[in-house]
């Protein structure tokens, strides 16, 4: 990964999760960011899915999912073809996968600015869940994150924000979804 995305990733990571009591975990994640290799058999399953998560990011996410000190599910905003979904589920977490799988979103970067068909991506997502044998660990919630949030009641231990990457999208997702965390713990890729 080049320098700018790397800085963005770590800035996001620090600013969004560094609530005081999680600081030791955050510092540990940073110190060991190069030493959390994802187990090879997990990576082989993830890497078959299309998407945007690098092996190093996958390692950090897997490590965080295994070590986050709160038991419970993950609310995943932005699933695409299921890379991060697979990581959370294979780490043993139940996942609420929330994604529009639609070109009716402000941030079309995941769909080649509209050249990739969203329904095909959604079909691949479901097929990938079957291939990874994690269908029973994932519940699918198709819709805009802002729409799904209106009727959302379930709590989760982790909120992973990786849907729209515009400033407005991320701000809105943080505002609408952090109330579903018991102790305001969350992290984001955006
Ligand atoms: C960067 S991709 C997610 C990548 C995925 N986490 C992975 O590991 O490969 C972003 C996803 O967010 C979805 N998305 C973008 N804006 C959205 C919105 N406002 N509401 C719901 N989904 C949205 C897109 O459909 C796309 O699938």
Structure in words:
By secondary structure, the chain is α/β, with parallel strands linked by helices. It has one domain: 3-Layer(aba) Sandwich (Rossmann fold), CATH 3.40.50. It is 45% helix and 11% strand. The chain contains eight helices and five strands, in the order H-H-H-H-E-H-E-H-E-H-E-H-E. It has helices spanning 3-17, 23-31, 40-47, 55-67, 83-90, 118-132, 145-150, 167-177; strands at 74-77, 95-99, 138-142, 158-161, 187-188. The chain has a five-stranded parallel sheet, with helices on both faces. Strand 1 (74-77), helix 5 and strand 2 (95-99) form a beta-alpha-beta unit. Helix 3 (40-47) runs antiparallel to helix 5 and helix 4 (55-67) packs parallel to helix 5 (83-90). The longest helix has 15 residues, at 3-17. It is globular, with a radius of gyration of 15 Å. The mean pLDDT is 87. The structure holds S-adenosylmethionine.
